[in-house]
Amino acid sequence: NYNSPKCMYIWRNIKTINMNLAGRKKEIKLLQGLLQKKSPEFVAVYGRRRVGKTYLIREVYKQQIVFECSGLHQKSMGQQLENFWLTLQEYRNVSTSTLPPKTWLQAFSQLKMHLNTLEESKKVVFLDEIPWFETPQSGFLAALSNFWNAYCSKRSDIILVICGSAASWIIKKVINDRGGLHNRVTTHIRLMPFSLLETKIYLEMQQVQLTLKDLVQLYMCIGGIPFYLSHVKAGKSIPQILDDLFFLPQAALEQEFQNLYAALFKNSDLHERVVAALSSKNKGLSRKEIITKTKSGGGLTIALKELIECSFVQETIPYYSNSKTIQYRLVDEFTLFYFRFLAKETTKNSWLQISSKSKYKIWSGLAFENVCLKHIAQIKQKLGISGIITRDFPWSHKGNKLEKGAQIDLVIDRSDNCVNLLEFKFYDTPFEIAKRDAAELNQKIQVFKDKTKTKKNVFLTFLSVYGVKKNKYYLSIVTNQLLIEDLFAEIWLLH
Fold this sequence. Notes:
Layout: H1 5-17, H2 25-34, E1 41-46, H3 53-60, E2 65-70, H4 77-91, H5 104-116, E3 123-128, H6 140-150, E4 158-164, H7 167-175, E5 187-190, H8 196-205, H9 212-222, H10 226-229, H11 238-247, H12 256-264, H13 268-279, E6 285-286, H14 287-294, H15 300-309, E7 313-316, E8 327-330, H16 333-342, H17 351-354, H18 358-373, H19 376-383, E9 390-397, E10 406-414, E11 418-425, H20 435-452, E12 457-464, H21 472-477, E13 480-483
Parallel strand pairs: 1-4, 1-5, 2-3, 3-4, 11-12, 12-13
Antiparallel strand pairs: 6-8, 7-8, 9-10, 10-11
Helix pairs in contact: 4-5, 5-6, 9-16, 9-18, 12-13
């Protein structure tokens, strides 16, 4: 029960961790735990732009940060060094200043001098947007390696935190480095967008009260990105909120797409072409299909890897299929929303106008499916199968003139000899299974059994906004159903 005392206790417990942070309980606990350790710590935090990485570090370590500096986007080595030096002067407690460094080795040497003047207690050195520090032939990474290996690693009172939106850069250059930084990172955090529950808590902290359906609809448009959610104003309806974000003059996110990929990736044109191609196919594309649509060859492997690491794209490995071709699916809510309603619009509309058209109804079903797929853990918990080993995947079979096709929103293939086939329905009223619907559902189940050759028990499960009416067709074919409130549970809190 979403409003049960147990759930209310969980939400209150989350909020009391830190009144300025919504959710992030795992990350907070992990980062705070490092303060108690008697060893040097090297922490890498990465995730997509606007997801709240910097804010998380600042809030958790606001009493311990003794130096914080952020790289400058697309600036020269000289400008990066000057920024580092000027920032260091602000932290120094002496009236005299050092000369501006000419190399990164000199810059980190000055940072060491500053740290040596501080009292013995846990100190956090925070380097934000670290990929931007590294300019061609600057020697930044070598100097960073020297700073950690020759200085920080000998000090039990230092936590070095690096952060950046270019996830692939941090993974390749730091976490998986084969040189001086090899195996030096002691903790790494991939910060993901808010879940539905965290989104609810965040908006409540801003005095924004929305129904569960409206919360899900908002999530379908912009996902759980804190920066986007920060522009939501209390006392407004979903159409008003979306108009503020996208459709009114000087809308808060009007230029977000143009800035999003350019800030994350070098040569972002290919990344944008890939997501544009993926937005045209709801169930995803193979690598070959992406090449055909984007007319690209070189660089695609790296682009796909970077998009996956930043949570824009998801790899789907086919199960129960003769084809072993990996499918790539666009899963970023904002990007999907942009290509469906913003990219090709030549005139400004209002959300009320857009949502009255047929393409909205098509999009809403697919967007709701995407949200559900991001909350599979919550679905499994409600079904009581959290402790069972499963494989979870969408499934489809393309029909022809001789046989029927079928598409199933989510298959949960369980190790206890059972399979759940899930149907997601985003309706404004309770869904009612008619005779025609029942025939189609029976056909789906039969096609799945025939094509997969499964011998397991097959259960049909519905997940909808307001439930499914329990008429004779429901009772004859549906095993169980879930409601959208079941997507608002935080799995790990319940153990």
